[in-house]
Amino acid sequence: xxxxxxxxxxxxxxxxxxxxxxxxxxxxxxxxxxxxxxxxxxxxxxxxxxxxxxxxxxxxxxxxxxxxxxxxxxxxxxxxxxxxxxxxxxxxxxxxxxxxxxxxxxxxxxxxxxxxxxxxxxxxxxxxxxxxxxxxxxxxxxxxxxxxxxxxxxxxxxxxxxxxxxxxxxxxxxxxxxxxxxxxxx
Length: 186
Description:
Number of strands: 7
Distance between the termini: 43 Å
Helix content: 25-40%
Number of helices: 6
């Protein structure tokens, strides 16, 4: 595995035009990567599931990492209905690009988007044996509250204006004023 993100990969808001590439991306994940992302085997990127992953008609947001060959990573954030002001972040990267820092950039992009839109707390739910994802969260958000139960680790991260700026500065992300899923009239 490389330790540098290939320069041709960009992180940008996911759009409806990404549907076909996202379907191919998820179909190309190894069984282990798919299990770690979706907490189960047999994931299929059906149209209803792609609507969710693209946040079509839903609150939250999604980002993709894309390059000349198509999509190589996906991240999303979605509000947690039972906890106003909180959102869950999830992400996955193509197997051959894991360990390059692309997952970190995707996670930070999703967190930054959520924070800019008023989310005050982020939650990551990670399988306890998913060492790379656990290391990523602990490294990027060392103050995260950590709870372990039933083979899963829940991280909660308090956000604020300083968190948005720190994420953008650390990752060299270009903020965008309004996510693709949010209407221009809002």
